[in-house]
Amino acid sequence: MKPVLILSAKDQIEQLLKPLISAPEKLKLQQVRLTSEELTLVVVSTQSVVHCPVCGQGARRVHSTYQRTLQDLPWGPFRVQLQVRVHRFFCQNPDCLRKIFTERLPELMEPSARRTSRLRDALRAIGWALGGRAGARQCRAHAMPVCATTLLAVLRREESATVPTPRVLGVDDWSFRARQTGTLLVDLERHQPVDVLLGSDEEVFASWLGDHPGVEIISRDRGVSYLKGATKGAPNAKQVLDRWHLCKNLEEVLQKALARQIDVLRQAGQESQGENQDQPTAPASLARTRDRQRKPPRRKAPSPSPQRAWQLTMYQQVHELAASGISHREIASRLQIQRQTVRKYLRMPEFVDRRHSPFPSHLEPYRAYLQQRWEQGEVMIKRLWQEIQQQGFTGSYNSLWKFLHTWPLPAGMVSSPTSVSFVPAVRAMPTTRTPRQTMWLLLRDPEELSEADAAYQQTLFRLAPSLENCSALGQAFLQMIKKRERDAFLPWLTQAKACPVDEMRRFALGLESESDAALAALTEPWSTGQVEGQITRLKLLKRQMYGRANIDLLRLRVLHVA
C-alpha cells in the first residue's frame, strides 16, 4: 500500500510544497514568490558531502555558491520557476585533474540544463506525439511555453535506441519530397520499423544490408532497385515477392492490353446493348425535314495537345529510323529518349494514347443516340443538348461540347426526313466501359457475372479472341496466389509465355527472371503489408511537422516506438 501524507490547512507552506519538489531530502525551501502568471520557488542545497564527478572521491570543503534558474512543471495555471542555490567544492584528491567542481543534483537536473529533468521528459513526450508546432501550441496551453524549434531540438538530442538486425526484413519506398524518395525497413517478426533511409536506389539498400549482416529473408515488391540491392548486399538472403504487388502488376498488365483496344471495348458495348434492347431512336416530335443541304459549322478540328503531338512525332521518327536499320541504342541517343520508350513504340502497330479516364463519361448512355443524330446531319451541339435533356440528361452544355467537339463532321451533312422514336437510355448500364472496368470483368468468376456483364464479356471475346486467353490466365493466376499453389506456377508460366498479347507475355518473362522469389511468395507467410502500414504512419508524422521534417528528425520519430 502506498504511503499517504495528510496535511491540514494549519500546516506550514513548506510542508505542503516540499513533497512536490524533486529530491526534497537534498533541498530546503527558503522563499515563495507568486505573480499573476508565475510561481517562483527559492531553494538551497543541503548536501554536506559531494562526490567529485571525475575521480568520485567525496569532498566537504566549499569553494563558493552560485544560483541556477530552472523551469519546472506547471502547477495549475501557473508557470513554475526554481531558483536553486548550489555549491562549488574543492576536490581533495591531489591526483585528480579537476580541482574545483560544481555540485550535482541528478534527481532534479542535468549539468548546464535550464529545465528540470521531469519538464524535459514532459516536453519530449509531447514532441514525440505531436511534433513541433502542434506540440508547442499544446505546451503553451498548459503553462509550459516553448517554441517549435526548441521542442524539435529536445527531440534531436534524444539518441535513438539501437535496433537489432532483423532476421526477416520488409522493404518498400515512400515519397519524401517531390522527385525524392526514401526507403523504409521493417522487422516483420517484431512488427517494428528498423531504419528510415533517404533514397530508394540499389546502392542505398545494398549499403545498409552490408552494414547489417544477418538478414535471412527479404520481402519486397518487384522494383528493380530492391532486387539488385538485395542481391548485392545480402546474396545469401532469401527473397520473397509480395503477393499483393503480384496481383496489382497483373491488373496493370491487363489495363495496358485493354487500353490498346479501346475501339473494341466501345464496339462490344454497342453490340451487347443492342442485343438486350432495341436501338434507341429519336421521338417523332424531334424529327425535322430539311429540303436543302446544310452548311457545315465554322468549327476547326481540335489540335492535339503539345504532349500528344510530341509523342506522335517521336513514334513516327522511331519507326522511320528503325526501318532504316538503326539500332535501338542509336535511336534513343539521336532522339534523346529512353531505350524502353523506343522498344514500346516499336511494339505498337499504331500510336495509341494510353491515358484514359478511370470513370466513364455521363454521356456514355446517350452515345448511340448521339451517333445516330450526328450521322443524320445534326451537328449543332446546343440542339443535341436540348434533345437529350428531354430524355433525362442533367449535365451541362460544356460537358456535351467536350464529348462531341472531336467527332468528324458527317459527309454531305444531309439530314434524314424520316422520324424516329427514342427509348430513354438506362444510366445504370453504360455502352462503353473503361479499361479498368473491363479488367475487373475479365478477372471475375463467370458465375458471379450478371446477365449484362456476361453478354458484354462474350461479345468482347468474339471481337478480340486474345482477351479470352488473357482472362483465363488472369483468373488462374489469382487462384494460384489465393490458394498458394506452388506446383501450378511453372505450368502457368509456360502458358503465359505463349499468350498472343505482348503485355501478358512480358509479364510472364519478368516473373521467370525472378522465379525463386515468386515461388517463395507461394510458400512463405511473409508480405510487405506491415511495411505499407508503417509507411502510412510515417506519412502522418511527416505531415504533422508542416515541412520541418528533415530526414534525421523524421527518422527519430518513426523509430521512437521501436
From TrEMBL:
InterPro entries: Homeodomain-like_sf (IPR009057), HTH_IS21_transposase_type (IPR017894), Transpos_ISL3 (IPR047951), Transposase_DDE (IPR002560), Transposase_Znf (IPR029261)
Domain HTH IS21-type: 313-374
One Pfam entry name: DDE_Tnp_ISL3
Stretches the record annotates as Disordered: 268-309
Compositionally biased intervals (Basic residues): 291-301
Name of the protein in question: Transposase IS204/IS1001/IS1096/IS1165 family protein
Biased composition regions of type Polar residues, renumbered to the chain: 269-282
